[in-house]
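Q: What structure does this chain adopt?
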Amino acid sequence: MSWDCGLKYMFSVSPALQQRSKCILPDKEDLSRLEMVQRLAKDGCRFLQNHGKGQEKASEPQSDEAVRLCLTERGHSVLVLQRVSSEQPAPSASARGGGREEARNRRYMVVSGTPEKILEHLLNELTPDDDRGTAQGKEPDTLLDDFLLTYPVFMSTSDLCQALLGHYCAKRHRGKEDRKEALERKQKLLHLVSQWMSLCKGFLRDDEHVKLFVKTLYRYVVDDLYEHPALEKDVGELQKVYQLHRRHTVDDCSPQRKGKALFHQLSLKESGLQSRGTQRDAKEALCHVYITMDSYLSMRAHPGVVARELVQAVAERMDVPQGDLVLVAVTYPGGRLLLQPQDRVFSSSLRSVGRLHVCRKDLGEVLNPFPDNSELQHRTARMLSLNTWDVAVALTDFDWTIFDSMHEQELVYFTFSRHASSHHTMALELLLQRCNDVQLWVMTEVLLCPTLCKRVQLIKKFIKIAAHCKAQRNLNCFFAIIMGLNTAAVSRLSQTWEKIPGKFKRLFSELETVTDPSLNHKAYRDSFKKMKAPKIPFLPLLLKDMTFIHEGNKTFHDNLVNFEKLHMIADMARLIRECQKDHMGNGITQKSSSDVRAYIDYLHIIDNQQTLFELSHRLEPRA
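A:
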């Protein structure tokens, strides 16, 4: 049945719907709660009552889960919404107008839709009151946050920029849009852009489409200032975010604005985005320099590191004259490139030029870092002399420096486009590599320890370091140490483990319980929830959860974006943000001694499993 367009005066909320659209309603009673009718009736849409249920069931109350709204255009579904109850308390009727309280308590979650309709619905759902003050303690709108975190799954940044410019310049399709509506529409879009840039600035800084988009949008806003002076505040926000500069001149303004007041004369500095801080340049990379065919030094390196600096670091760490060494990059498929002292090691994407090897100058002899037993004894003595708490602090500082620079959107890029967008997942990949390095480092230290009594001391030390990492809320490193001690090459050393004191065995058993994978890692999840932020999660498990969501749910249903799946993906990504926050001043970083940091920053690691097992059997041969 058709409903008179006079209903538009009885209802208040308007989603993104176009002229000649059609909606299917589950029940006539739901009309009183829908937030859609005003815009639909205004735009000449038709509502049809769904007669799929019998009359005897029509009067039964329906749960929120049963109420879905489907928008179709030209016979195809373009947007599916589901009614949900707002978890946020509704403002008082006197403050908002009594007729809107029910509307705010009844919201619609996006189930699926085309990218354009999802964006249109999102913009219509934003309200001027919500636009202001989200940074003043309010939780950001979930739909907005979900969209900004997951949009790379279903549209490119270039497409999003074009869509946003189109919405800013669009006129309502039925008649002339009044001035208030136009101002509100522009303010909503500018708020969305501000949130987008604030959330994703690290990924967008070098995108040429974004640079052009920002300059174009800024000029549009400046040209609208005379007609909409209220946009002056939004211009200020744009200037604050993009480091743009006010110019009291008309030289760069459009001809139609030459006579306007100087107060509104603004222009875009072409290098606005360029002037922002180069966050990526401040990051450090994790560099592997092989000193034998199956072992390497894992070390910190700045992006502009040159071959001479790496050779110097290896020479100091291995106590070898620097003049005897050269750096060679082994490239696929087996080529050898001799790096000159001033050659840069990393490309702009922080990828090394190849597998790096330090060799003798004749290029025919690799280093032999431990030619005799006395050097092994010295190595073990140095490790045993380090304070366990300081070692844990140094490990946590290293991990936190990387984790704090990690963006939650890296999980999305890693899960959905691991190979195509690897330059967006640098911090995540570094943390995963660091976890693997620490595990191998634990194995290497234990298996290179030649005497039984010192090997027992070393294992005791690693158990204490693991406990300290857990106390410092560094679960990534905690897991790595426990897994290193539990590997077959170390756990088979029965004579060594028999000598471990009982209290250390009990402590190790307690720590192992946290890493128990049974019941979907329930012990770890329970323990992690109780920890205060900031904290570093065990990232491989987080990626496993993301992969299960990705593989277990289709990204598209009937050519519509499955936004229910993206809600779940965004919830997982937001965990990174929550872990990085320091609401109560629970700082995770502490100071450690320079000697400990120097040791932890240059871990010597054997990554060949066969070599590790050979060392294990050499220490304790098979019976």
